[in-house]
Design a protein that fits this description.
Elements: H1 9-27, E1 32-33, H2 35-42, H3 46-54, E2 66-67, H4 68-78, E3 85-90, H5 94-101, H6 104-107, E4 110-117, E5 126-127, E6 130-134, H7 138-145, E7 149-152, H8 156-169, E8 173-176, E9 189-192, H9 195-209
Parallel strand pairs: 3-4, 3-7, 4-6, 7-8, 8-9
Antiparallel strand pairs: 1-2, 5-6
Helix pairs in contact: 1-4, 2-3, 7-8
């Protein structure tokens, strides 16, 4: 696999979509697919697909196309999905519970090892078999268990403090669902997820589709 020098975030964000569609093709028993066939399936142009994959070596064969299984495995490796990750969730509210209960993360190698809360009424409870622990023990738990990813499901006013603790404890990545962008040291990757942004984009596209239409 060719190691790229610098890949744009736009390309990286398309890779999980490629992988998801390839996985469906695997389930259906499809062995190979051309860039044109993939284009019709996924909605990107064949040129875009080839350009994206060429950043990592291409993987296609002239006159054959792409091996579905091979490309799926290559993209999995590029995304780091050929290994498992230990995670902790900070905040056991509705969103935190939903993430813990989502069995997909276990299937994909993302395993929740602990949940942390400040609400004493919740501490000691188990969510999908994972114990809710006192937030005061977060740093020690992360250090002792080699946690890779911290998932922040707190209010925005404490999100940066939580992020700082997780970074200090040694996580390599943060998945932040608090409604504020957090800052991390350069060696800690962060994905700030704003669910409302997606909803607002949907509203835009809905209204754009209605442009030019008059009420009867």
């Amino acid at each position: 696999m060719k190691k790229p020098a610098k890949i744009s975030n736009a390309v990286i964000k398309r890779l999980p979509r490629y992988r998801r569609y390839l996985n469906e093709l695997r389930r259906k028993g499809v062995d190979k697919i051309s860039s044109n066939e993939f284009s019709r399936l996924i909605g990107y142009t064949a040129s875009q697909i080839r350009q994206d994959l060429n950043n990592f070596g291409g993987f296609g064969q002239q006159g054959y196309g792409y091996s579905v299984e091979g490309l799926y495995n290559e993209i999995s490796a590029i995304l780091g999905l050929d290994k498992s990750y230990k995670m902790v969730v900070v905040g056991a509210g509705n969103l935190g519970r939903a993430i813990v209960n989502h069995t997909y993360y276990h299937k994909a190698g993302f395993v929740v090892e602990g949940i942390f809360e400040v609400n004493e009424k919740i501490i000691g409870e188990k969510i999908n078999g994972v114990e809710v622990m006192n937030y005061e023990g977060l740093v020690e738990f992360v250090e002792e268990n080699g946690i890779d990813i911290g998932i922040i499901c707190t209010t925005k006013d404490v999100a940066q403090e939580v992020a700082d603790k997780l970074c200090f404890a040694g996580v390599r990545g943060l998945w932040n669902f608090a409604s504020v962008d957090i800052e991390t040291p350069s060696h800690v990757a962060v994905e700030n997820v704003h669910i409302s942004d997606s909803l607002h984009s949907l509203a835009y596209h809905m209204n754009k589709n209605n442009e030019g239409k008059s009420d009867n």
